[in-house]
Design brief:
Layout: H1 17-24, E1 27-29, E2 32-33, H2 39-48, H3 52-55, H4 84-90, E3 94-100, E4 118-122, E5 139-142, E6 145-149, H5 165-182, E7 187-192, H6 214-235, E8 244-246, H7 275-278, E9 282-285, E10 294-295, E11 300-301, H8 304-312, H9 329-334, E12 342-346, E13 349-355, E14 358-361, E15 363-364, H10 369-373, E16 393-394, E17 400-403, H11 419-437, E18 448-449, H12 461-464, E19 476-477
Parallel strand pairs: 1-10, 2-11, 3-4, 3-7
Antiparallel strand pairs: 1-9, 4-5, 5-6, 8-9, 12-13, 13-14, 14-17, 15-16, 18-19
Helix pairs in contact: 1-6, 5-6
């Protein structure tokens, strides 16, 4: 979902009344970022509080290449990473993930191994359908048990876009909140729904209801789900003791055109380190704690949720590793602003840095000219000479500098010889030098693929008559789209 997909963020159709209400009663955070412009690394960063280059969610197979966790990925979130639910579990919280995990598809990487107590969802996105010969359909789990597969037991009609998945995810959330609240049990709910990811889907009640087409139908249904979750918190009497955050894992997929969403005034989208790829529509809500109807100008990151949640729960931040997330409690409760840089990574390369209103691009790249000529455009209608490059261009000696307040679309680089550039760039360069001098990259987890590790068959499949073929092991370097 993109920064521009919510009414409160300027979407002209105004079809997100529940999220808009949440913002009117809470805090809008228009300067909030993911840690990567792609799903898996972004989610790994959210749950670990650490950049993907530190937690291993990147590839070194090619320079600056985004990577994720497809069905045949060998790696996953390392056991050495301390995830948010692991800490909360030790503090007495009960945690549940609903929807997309995407931190490793083998059972040893699954959520219940890494601190979650409950899971309903999938280790991957809802790609497919597949033929179950060369590639199996993607499994769905309840806790440790595979209970079915997308397109078989959990249907998605790719012609009409109809699917009840979001409704199932909503009911799972409401049931979890109801059960924990009745037990007076502290809880952490990670509602990781994915209807706005291709293939986009919505339930029958929402199909055809949006002026934006199927993508808008999906957004309206997610908005409805948020409204029901907020209402359930209120009905159970726990709204005043619950912090709720809404955000997204990366910018809208502009290459998907009408099925890809909107990034508002920002350049490009998913897969890129321009603003459209990593700036997220974010809202914080806590009645009685967060002042209603305020805008925070804090530059924030999904990684900050790790640090903030641990501190609010009374826990201790791990001190044996670098944690990139900062504590946002003063921003939430007092609307203060802390200066901090944002590092924009694409794969194993630091592409850009934000400091205050300034952003410096050390590398630029959209996608390859070959892919572009095949019709895949990460920046449709936004070709900017020397900025949206189809080759990886190294600007390290003279980074491209933009002022995001005056130029949120990153269209007008500040002149190299201007007083502004000469004043600002040494400050940013010092931040970059400090960051790189202290950087210890984690072991890359997204290098090796092997079709034999896919979820071919659940235990007891012989009795079900649904065993799938397992191909001979053939580990190889994963390749990723350009």
């Amino acid at each position: 979902m993109g920064w521009g997909d919510l009414g409160i963020y300027g979407q002209p159709s105004k079809e997100t009344p529940n999220l808009d209400w949440m913002a009117s009663k809470g805090m809008l955070l228009p300067d909030f970022y993911s840690a990567n412009p792609l799903c898996s690394p972004s989610r790994a960063a959210l749950l670990s509080g650490r950049l993907p280059i530190r937690n291993g969610f990147y590839t070194t197979n090619e320079h600056a290449r985004n990577a994720y966790t497809p069905q045949d990925i060998v790696g996953g979130i390392p056991d050495t990473e301390i995830l948010l639910p692991e800490i909360l579990q030790r503090l007495g919280y009960r945690s549940k993930i609903i929807g997309k995990w995407h931190l490793g598809q083998q059972p040893k990487y699954h959520p219940l191994i890494h601190g979650f107590d409950e899971w309903f969802g999938s280790p991957n996105c809802h790609f497919g359908p597949y033929d179950n010969k060369e590639t199996p359909n993607i499994p769905v789990y309840r806790d440790t048990d595979m209970i079915g597969r997308y397109f078989e037991d959990f249907l998605i009609d790719t012609k009409t876009g109809e699917s009840n998945l979001t409704q199932i995810y909503i009911q799972e959330a409401l049931s979890f909140i109801d059960t924990q609240s009745k037990k007076n049990q502290s809880f952490f709910l990670y509602w990781a729904v994915d209807a706005t990811h291709e293939p986009v889907y919505a339930s029958k009640a929402f199909l055809g209801t949006s002026a934006r087409g199927l993508y808008g139908d999906a957004v309206r249904e997610l908005d409805s789900g948020v409204g029901q979750i907020l209402q359930k918190l209120n009905d159970m009497g726990v709204a005043n003791n619950t912090l709720v955050i809404f955000s997204s894992d990366n910018g809208a997929a502009t290459y998907a055109q009408e099925m890809g969403g909107s990034n508002g005034p920002f350049l490009c989208g998913k897969q890129t380190t321009f603003e459209g790829g990593m700036r997220e529509p974010t809202i914080a809500f806590w009645p009685g704690k967060i002042q209603a109807g305020v805008v925070s100008y804090q530059v924030g990151s999904l990684m900050d949720l790790f640090t903030t949640f641990v501190n609010l729960a009374g826990g201790s931040i791990p001190d044996d590793r670098v944690i990139d997330g900062i504590d946002l409690t003063s921003s939430f409760f007092s609307n203060t602003v802390q200066e901090r840089p944002i590092f924009y990574y694409r794969g194993n390369e630091m592409m850009a840095v934000r400091w205050e209103q300034y952003k410096a691009h050390y590398w630029t790249w959209t996608n390859s000219i070959k892919e572009f000529e095949e019709g895949i455009n990460f920046c449709p209608g936004e070709e900017i000479s020397g900025v949206t490059t189809h080759e990886q261009v190294n600007h390290t000696s003279n980074p491209l500098l933009f002022h995001l307040g005056r130029d949120p679309g990153e269209k007008y680089p500040i002149g190299l010889n201007s007083e502004e550039y000469i004043t600002v760039m040494p400050i940013i360069q010092k931040l970059v030098d400090t960051h790189k001098n202290n950087l210890m990259p984690g072991e890359p987890q997204l290098n090796v693929c092997d079709r034999s590790v896919m979820n071919w068959a659940p235990p007891g499949c012989e009795k079900l008559g649904r065993c799938l073929p397992v191909p001979s092991p053939a580990p190889h370097n994963c390749t990723w789209p350009h």
